[in-house]
Amino acid sequence: MSTYLLPDRNTCYQPTSITAENQIPTEEEQAYKKLDEKLKGLLATLPKDKGWRSANIYLHEAFMKCGTTWLKALMFATANRHRYSFSDHPLRRNGPQSAFPFLDTHIFLDYPITKFEHLPSPRMFATHFAHSLLPISLSSPSSTCKFVYVCRDPKDALISKWHFMSKLRSKELPPLSFNEAYELFCNGVSEYGPFWDHVLGYWKASQEAPEKILFLKYEDMKREPSVELKKLAAFMGMPFSAEEEKRGVVGEIVKLCSFENLSNLEVNNDGGGAQKFTAQVVVENRDFFRKGKVGDWKNYLTEEMRERIDSITETKFKNSGLTLGLTKNA
Ligand code: A3P
């Protein structure tokens, strides 16, 4: 998963895509429909395989279940720490999903995207798109846009994704067995492309331009949340002052954004909110929280399965300098 922020103008983002005033003007709607038809034609020519959520998935470049929700909360709380008190924080009422927009869904719901002008500074967005799919205007060295990327042991990403997708899966389809999900994952069949390619794309880019891309690991964040949060704040150009550290601001943000706190909020539980991903896909906030632990894969993978995933990881990341989730160095 990757999140990026644009310099300029910030308060809690209020999802606006479902209201009447957001209806796409007719001309744009027509242009979009034309584009949609063209894309459908193009998609029909792509290779396809069994899907996680629907019957088929089309193979193209492009990951998820690596800590997007957590990172959103941390970034929002950090950027707005002077604005809100921790006891009455918008994250407590609205949850992290409302903190800032998820671009991938706006592409489906609001195309063409023109609704971000009003967003306050710093403008922050979330996306799962692969680095190679980003427009040059965002990824080129001259762009002032910065990225924060979070990744995770692929074995835990697989388990998390299987649970998540099982909830979203069309009720008209039989349940996706774990073995099927495992095969799809190992074969790189995922909505955002193969896990390993996704991670490598951002890893390489972060090595080339560390000032532009901050590369984080879920496991490091779990082990030393304060250390990683300080890294994040400095990268965002909003380092914690000595006085803030003395007042315990770092600890307050860590606590506010912890799994235990966020997963128990009303908005992330029964009676809580939901996110509209596409016209057909609506995800309840509570589905973004499951266990929030490192190493849950041990409860699902056989030794043979672990070995296969670790071996793919080793091969794919060879000579890249990146280590992730290998059991011997986890
Ligand atoms: P598990 O399914 O392993 O529990 P994403 O936000 O990218 O969809 O990732 C979801 C994963 O992050 C889930 O992992 C979820 O439980 C975990 N998660 C969500 N909020 C978290 C938080 N505040 N701290 C740690 N993990 C969190």
Question: Which keywords apply here?
Answer:
10% strand, binds adenosine-3'-5'-diphosphate, 330 residues, Rossmann fold, four-stranded mixed beta sheet, 14 helices, single chain, alpha+beta
CATH architectural label:
3-Layer(aba) Sandwich
Helix-strand pattern:
EHEEHHHEHEHHHEHHHHHEEH
Number of helices: 14
Helical content (DSSP H or I, runs of 4+): 40-55%
Taken from the alpha-carbon principal axes, the silhouette is: globular
Count of extended strands: 8
Mean pLDDT: 84
Biggest β-sheet: count, sense, barrel?
4 strands, mixed
Beta-strand fraction estimate:
5-15%
Annotated CATH homologous superfamily: P-loop containing nucleotide triphosphate hydrolases
Backbone structural class: alpha+beta
Uncertain runs: 6-22, 56-62
Distance linking N and C termini: 20 Å
Strand order of the largest sheet: 4-1-5-6
Which hetero ligands occur in this complex?
adenosine-3'-5'-diphosphate
Protein name: Sulfotransferase
Keywords: Transferase
InterPro entries: P-loop_NTPase (IPR027417), Sulfotransferase_dom (IPR000863)
EC number: 2.8.2.-
